[in-house]
Amino acid sequence: MAARREAGLLVRNGQAVSKCRCFSTSSIVASGPASPPRIDPRGRPKRDETRYGIPRFKTAAVDRETVEASAEHADHPLWKFFRDRQPIEDDIMGENGEGSRAWTANELRGKTFDELHELWYVLCIERNLLDTQYIEVRRHGSSQVAMTTLPHKRRQVKLSLSRVKIVLAERRRALMEAQALLNASSPIATQKDIKRDQKLAQFEERVRQKYGEAAVQRAQEQRQFKLARYEAYLAEQQKKADAVEARKAQSNQRLPLSRESSFMEASA
């Protein structure tokens, strides 16, 4: 090292001047003192001990056995989202290698509204449970999620939920059609009509107390006259609409036929 360093020196004006840059085979970082950690303006180190930083408050870990044995958390509703000490895979598999299947629409049609309501919440809990297991497997870094039955189970639960919706939509549609037929055959008094009749009865009672029975009869006659005029007006408007539709149908018959329709009539 001394020979190399002397070879790189040059004498100028009685003083030794470096001709080239001196170098060393040993690492400067390893040989020199350790550099202090970088400090940000807030006085904290740039890098923490862990990936997510040092926790501000350090608390003692809670023993799992103590938590499981406590009666306070034994029947907590959140435990429904976890299967306690049960494997992810099914022990009992069907003939086709599947451990479960979705509810069919025919099976759901035979259930009452209360049973469908309970089944809906059971399926929601099962779906959340399966999603929790799926996320836990992915969080542990396992790439074999596709080889388990979790994707199949999630798909079957979603199918069951969608079929419950279909059955409820069918019942609602049938109810609306039945109401439409009933209203067309025999109109039912709506809540608005009932309130109108109540107000009319109260008005007649006030008129009877103040002016007597003769005033009430005159008011009823005037109301009947106005209703008759209104019904005549509606009949006249309906007659005009029928006349317009008849003229439109007559004008459509006079229009020339298209090539396709004329060719079909000629071939017939």
From TrEMBL:
GO molecular function: structural constituent of ribosome
Main location: mitochondrion
Keywords: Mitochondrion, Ribonucleoprotein, Ribosomal protein
GO biological process assignments: mitochondrial translation
Protein localization: Mitochondrion
Biased composition (Polar residues): 249-261
InterPro entries with a match to the protein in the record: MRP-L47_sf, Ribosomal_uL29_mit
Pfam families per UniProt: MRP-L47 (PF06984)
Biased composition (Basic and acidic residues): 39-50
Region Disordered: start-end pairs: 29-50, 241-268
GO cellular component terms listed in the entry, alphabetical order: mitochondrial large ribosomal subunit
Family: Belongs to the universal ribosomal protein uL29 family.
Protein name, UniProt field: Large ribosomal subunit protein uL29m
Protein source organism: Mixia osmundae (strain CBS 9802 / IAM 14324 / JCM 22182 / KY 12970)
Gene: Mo00587
